[in-house]
Amino acid sequence: MLSLAVPIAGLQLGLMLYGVVDMMFLGRLGPLALAGVGVGNAVYFGMFIAGLGAMLGIDPMASRAWGAGKPAVCAGVFMHALVLAAGVGAVLFVGTFAAGPFYRLAGVDAPVARTALDFLGVLRFMMFPGLLFVACRQYLQSMDETAPLMWAIGLGNVLNAFLNWLLIFGNLGFPALGVRGSALASLTSTSFMLAVVGWAAARRVRASQWRYHGWHPSVFGELLALGVPAGLQTLAEVCAFGLTTVLIGRLGPVPTSGHQIALNLASVTFMVPLGISMAAAVRVGQGIGRGDRPGAARAGDSAVFLGVAFMGAMALVFWAVPSALVRLYTHDPAVLAVAAPLILIAAVFQVFDGAQVVLTGALRGLGETRLQLWANIAGHWLLGIPVGAFLCLRLGWGARGLWLGLCSGLVLTAGLLYWAWREKSAPLRT
User: Where is 200: in which H helix or E strand?
Assistant: First the structure.
């Protein structure tokens, strides 16, 4: 598990570094820029991660074919997935134009909403290269090929940081574009990453000796059958966090900035169990493909242990130095006063967040994506959001109330998914 989980977790951290670098540059523009980008990202990444979820059918299908020694079948799954990525990207691109009415309906502070729409006007174009990158990545991961991904993300981060420096502040004679400059930097670096991994994926397809033999509705149908519930599950989870960001946006720039910093830090640590989750889906799927059922169960158990252990260690870091972590982004005392208590809450909820995402991947390796959807709906929408809204809006606890609601929802989600994994993996252990 470690042989695949470590590079994939590194890839996730590299992807998350994009957002961290963006926030550090944007923090110099003040709380309004941070708040606007946070609210803009709540819409964009809510939609993008739903699209990413729709692509997660690649993991079990391609890894099973690879485990069974059928590289051409694996390549065929990938070619159908490219069509799916383009179609989903087009739908989500159009969906981003609903952000303005959504912000008005949610009562987002007007200057924050204007900044968010300015940022989103450029960022929405990243939907296409972003989802095509996901398709290439999932295909390469299913065959344990991670080196091209590491090169793409490493070089892409360097390019992103350089373009942020150029375009946000107008260095070296470039125009100072502010938040739009940050969005343009992200779009350019993501397109560069797609070019790198697309080249690597094309080489793999040629090496597999795959040949076009017509469109296969059964392959596309299976991708949809696995991907649609996974996409809805990720949408349910991300929209819960996105709605939290939008509700906090009603409180003004300072609370929103503090929330965005705490959420960004929690998202950094989340990248590791997310990477472990992807490795779990591949390893469990490969075990099923080669007929090693006990090995598939052990792979899932190992992944859960690694995810919880890592997040437990990060919880100790969050508890130990919350203020120092906030100062990586800003020295504004008002923002610091909001963000530090939220990081203490994040220390608790991220252990359960890590558990639920790894369990989601292990179950996906078994070909199960529907139970994760229902567990997330129950945890976030039947418990977490109502509790958070009550604490924030009725009791006046502000951002802390919403974060405590998120924490309660993650506890329930993790518990339900652990029960589902034990039930689904029980036949493999005999």
Answer: helix 179-207
Residue in this structure with the two tokens 């990545």, named with its chain if needed: 137
Confidence class for position 47, pLDDT limits 50, 70, 90 = confident
Apex 375 CA angle, 373 and 378, nearest 5:
110
Please work out, in degrees rounded to the nearest 5, the angle formed at the alpha carbon of residue 16 by the alpha carbons of 11 and 17: 95
Domain boundaries, the chain: 2-429
Q: How far apart are CA 201 and CA 312, in angstroms?
A: 36
Transcribe 120-185 into DSSP letters.
HHHHGGGHHHHHHHHHHHHHHHHTT--HHHHHHHHHHHHHHHHHHHHHHHTGGG----THHHHHHH
How do residues 248-293 score in pLDDT, each as one tens digit?
A: 777 777 787 788 788 878 888 888 898 899 889 888 988 888 888 8
pTM of the model: 0.77
CA atoms within 13 A on the CB side of 145: 19
Size of the chain, expressed as the number of residues it contains: 430
Report CA-CA distances (Å) from 400 to 261, 371, 396: 14, 30, 9
Alpha-carbon separation of residue 58 from 80, 82, 341, 364, 379 (angstroms)? 10, 10, 39, 10, 26
E strand or H helix that includes residue 337: helix 333-365
